[in-house]
Each structure stands twice: as structure tokens, then as C-alpha cells.
Amino acid sequence: MWKFILRRFLVMIPQLFLLSIIVFMMAKAMPGDALSGQEINPRANPAELERIREDLGLNDPWYQQYIRWASNAVQGDFGISYTHKTPVMDVIEDRLWNTVFLALVTLIFTYMLAIPLGILSGRYNDTWVDKTVTGYSYIGFGTPIFIFALIMLFVFGFALDWFPSGGSVDSKVDEGTFAYVVSKINHLILPALSTALIATTSTIQYLRNEIIDNKIKDFVRTARSKGVPESNVYSRHILRNSFLPIAAFLGYEITGLIGGAVIIETIFSYPGLGQLFLSSVSLRDFSVVTAIVMMTGFATLLGTLLSDIILSAVDPRIRIE
Amino acid sequence: MKKAILQIENLTTSFRIQSKYHAAVDDVSFTVNENEIVAVVGESGCGKSALALSIMQLHNKQRTKSEGTIHYKGQNLLTLNDTQMNKVRGKELGMIFQEPLTALNPLMTIGKQIEENLDYHTELSRDEKKSRTIELLTQVGIPYPERTYKQYPHELSGGMRQRAMISIAIACNPALVIADEPTTALDVTIQAQILDLLKDIQSKTKMGIILITHDLSVVAEVADRIVVMYAGQVVETGSVKEIFNNPLHPYTRSLLNSIPSATNEKNRLHVIEGIVPSIAKMDRKGCRFQDRIPWIPKQAHEESPHLHEVGQDHFVRCTCYKEFYFQDEGDASTHDITQSR
Questions:
Q1: Are residues A28 and A112 in the same domain?
Q2: Does the beta-carbon distance from A236 to B94 stay under 8 Å?
Q3: Which of the four pLDDT bands, split at 50, 70 and 90, describes residue A6?
């Protein structure tokens, strides 16, 4: 088991290396650089700008820039943000935690909706309960998240004013107090719920179909032949088997939420990684962009590993040696 | 006089196919006595498994209806609700299924799956349940019961899995075990072992067994009585000796004639023409086997065939048996496989 995990980490090294080259070259291929915005500034001296470019090494060939960047990045130093003028890791850190909290709360909402609805829908398939849940799922599949999030923001953020409409915490409360935590959670609910209400539909349908597949399996008939009451046939036999693929998918789900928060964070002006990523791209803040992509890539690799570990933990047929 | 355990009378089980009900088990009656193995034989699609699941009430109730009576200890099983039936299933009636890999829960250890039966039907403590389970595993001939107790189904061989399945069925000392093709998924040497095991357990516990199979060699080896089913109906019943020595119904004779024989190497294996009619399309009047023996004149069949007593405890449906003969009798040379080689 530990050997397996170690081996997977070793395999990640060439994967991350390849990713870093691609990311670096693509970032460099974007037109303009961090100083392009200054060129229209009448007070900026073009010669001075050129001197800064030379100092920063922006005029060197890409592979020289890459080697310089990569050797620092290996040591955890992603350089200085051109726009924030502070180390990239400092810029990212707070936002990373915001995004992780958002992802976790979204995940909790997603499963809180998906598990009961999926079970109801699968157990009582083709009844009105199932048809209602499936109807909701199709609406969820068909609704673009940016439209739905805007509606949620308008209704609960502005019209009813139940939840704050932006930010990650109230600026008036002090860090470390109980009110701070409450404020944090309060800011999370609306973006998390908006994502969960849409994202949960695929999990509901997945669980529903697993249950419908499993309830006609031979081992379920065996359980009934032992005189097991129907509720226990579900809890001990059908559901356990139906949760397998859902549990295995958890790792990917977390990665998807961390990487895919761009839209929701932008709409709710939530200061997370996604929002930072978007603004860094438009400001040509390469050092931040590359750092975020590298971290998301690493999270994806970790997510697949996490999925494999979860699957081996819940399914005795799969053992990783 | 033997003591009857289970009496099935006029059992008809119908499946709903597009809002119409079609009988897969049609007016079946027979009795299982204590210490007796009754074999139910027939091709695939004859209603054997449908019969077994009707006794256990394991059909999907929304799509199935069962009529008639199944007497067990003074009650009609068909009138019991699910809660009452759950007290009978597993405790009084055990069931062994055909495919032991899919019939066992892949996520539960063998021990837990046997104990589950004890959970619902006994008051044993946790330790007592475990020792009873180990005892059961030993009884069915599993070499390392303590180890197998903790193993998952995929870690066992097919034969071991079927032994585990048997120990689930007999965990609460049921009066009757229904074995639905228990050896079909196993290879021949293991088949013999499993049959010996069933016979051995039966002789010790005096329980009754309904053995569902399409393999007549299995029947010859272990059964006491035979019920031959065709297209949902019983076409012939009798003792094993009687049926093997004096088969009468054309279907029974055809089945027996289809057994490969070691001494008859030259001739091609007998094949019954056609297939079992599907329950939705079959003609329910007249002899159901007549389409597969077209060389027998129509007048030989009864208009509405019923069971005739032809010997002691030997019943045959329809009168066509009196005129039946095999088409290829006497001209076996045309089927000589040496010619086609």
C-alpha cells in the first residue's frame, strides 16, 4: 500500500515536468507581458520599461527563462507577482484556502442532496417520486451554472438579502473570533449551494442507476431468501454496492471543484483561486498563472490517487499492492 | 406413510407482460416428504426456477401473481405477507442458487453472510453465532473454516463458494431446501462432490430437498422422485426407478434419449426438435409438446390433456404417450457420424 503510494508519487514527477513545460510555453505565447499595460501610460519611459524587461529576464530565450523559473519552483518559490509585488505563494495562500473551503462545503451540499434523492429515486423507480427527481435532474443538466448562479445571487443576495453578495468574510469582524467563522460560513453558503444544486444532478442519476442495477442482482435475491427484511436488504446489500462508484469518484470530484471554481468565484466576487486565475491572465501576471496551473495539475494527480485509495478501501476485490 | 413437509396444490404463477398475465407455472401440484429429494427436471424455460421462486415468494410482486396453495406446517404460504414470510424464508425454507459467485454479496465476508441468516432467526450471541458459522463451514467440507470465515467470495473457488452457499441455506436447520441448479455452474468433478454433500446433509438432518436441474444424470444419482415439467406444466411424475425404467411421456423419453451414452459411440446424439414455446405466444389448449413431435398424428393427443395414473404414484399427462415412437428409430445409419467425418 505505502509502496504503491510512493510509486504513484514518483510517476507524478515526469507528469508535472511535462505539464510545467506546456504551461510555461503557453503562458509565454500569450501576446504582451506584465509591462504591456504600462506602454500606454504617458508618464512611463519606454527606455525604462525596456530596462526593467531586461532586468526581469523577459527578453531571454524561453528555455533560459524556463530553467530559471523551474529551478526556483522546485524549491517552492514561484517568484514575485508582477502586479501584487509580493511573492506568488503569499498571493495564492489565502485564496487557496478560500477555494478549498468552498469546495468542501459544495461537496457536503452535493452529497447531502444526492444521497437521499438518489436512494429514493432508485428504490422507487418509475413512481412519481422518481419522476420528480429525474425531472429535476434533467433541468439541472440543462441549466448553465452561470445563469443559475446569477439568478441565485439576484434572489437571495439582492432581492431577499439573506446572504452577502460578495467577498469571503465581513471586513468588520476580527480574525480568530467566533463571529469571523460565522461570517466565513455565511459567505460560503450561496456560492456553494448554487454549485451543488446543479452539480448534484449527475451524482443523483449515477446513484439511482446503480441502485436499479443492483436491486435485481443475484446476491440481493440471496439476501431475501435468508429472510432479511426489505429495509436491511437495502442498507446492507443494495446501497453498499451502489455507493462503490460514487465513493471512487470522490477524488475526482474534489479536483473538479478546486479547478472549476472560476465561474462561480467570479460571479460571487469570491476571492478564491479561480478569480485570481482569471484576473492574473488578463493582467499577464505569468508567475501567478503558471503557479496556479501547476497547483491545479498537482491536485488532479492527487485526486486520481485519492480515488484509487478510496476504491481499494471500500471494495475488497481491489487491493493495491 | 411418510410425513409431508410441503404440499403444492394447483399452483399457477403468472407474469405480467404488457398488462396481460401469462402463466409460467401452470396448475402444478406435488408433495415433498420428509427425508426425500424431489427432482424437478425440464429444459430451460419450462418454469422450474419460476416454481422455486414462487415457493420462496421471491418474485417481484408488482409483476407476478401466484394462485393455488402451498401448504407448509398448516399455513398457506401464498397468503402470508412479507413480514410473516421473512420468518419462514431462511429459517424453515432454505435456498441454494445456481451461480455462487453472483449469488454472494461481493462486499461481505463469507462469515458475515452466513451469520446474517442467524441474525434474523436465532437469539444467539455474537460468539455463539461465530462458532455456529465455523461449525457450518466445517460441515460443508471447507478445509480451513476459520480462514474462510474472514474471506470474501472472490477469494474462493467455485466449489468452495457453492459450499458456502449451502451453509447459508442450512444455517437454521430448515425443513426444506430448494436447490436451483446447484451444480450447473461447476465442473463435473466438483458437481459430484456437491451432490454427495447435499445427500449427506439430507440424510443426517432428514430434511426435504427440491432439486431443480436439467441434468438427468444428477437426478439418477440423488433423487427419490421426479417431476418432469414442460412449458409450465407437470407432464410426468413418479419415482426415480419408475421414470428411468418405464418412461412414458414423449418429453420424458426424449430427455432420457438425449443423455450421451458411453457405449453408443457411433450414433449421433438425440436432439429434441424445436424449442420450448415462450409463455406469451404458446397455445394453452391441447398437448403442449405436440409441435415438437410433428410425426405423431394429432388424434393421438387429448383435447385438454390431464394427468393419468398409469402405475403406483406414476402420472402422465396426455394420451399421446401410447402412440409415441422416435422418428429415427430403426434408421440410425442415416445419422451415423462416421459418414460426416
A1: no
A2: no
A3: confident
Contact B220, B192 (CB under 8 A): no
Give B 120-159 residues with CB within 8 A of chain A.
120-121, 152, 154
Count CA atoms within 13 Å of residue B170 on its CB side: 25
Touching check for B212 and chain A: CB below 8 Å? no
Answer yes or no: do A178 and A231 share one domain.
yes
HEC string of B106-158 equals: CCCCHHHHHHHHHHHHCCCCHHHHHHHHHHHHHHCCCCCHHHHHCCCHHHCCH
State the residue range of the domain holding A16: 2-74
If asked whether residues A244 and A302 sit together in one domain, one would say yes
Element (H, E) at A94: helix A88-123
- Percentages helix, strand, coil for chain B, rounded to the nearest 5? 35, 25, 40
Residue with the three cell numbers 429415427:
B328
Determine the Cα angle at B96 with ends B95 and B99, to 5°: 140
Give the Å distances, CA to CA, from A240 to A23, A87, B108, B111: 41, 47, 10, 17
Quick check: B58 and A218 in contact, CB under 8 A?
no
Q: Which domain holds residue B14?
A: 4-223
Q: What is the pTM of this model?
A: 0.82
Q: What is the percent of chain A where pLDDT is above 90?
A: 29
Binary contact (A226, B168; C-beta < 8 A)? yes
Which set of grid coordinates corresponds to residue B308?
393419468
Q: Which amino acid is at B175?
A: A
ipTM above 0.90, yes or no: no
Cα–Cα distance between A98 and A271 in angstroms, integer? 7
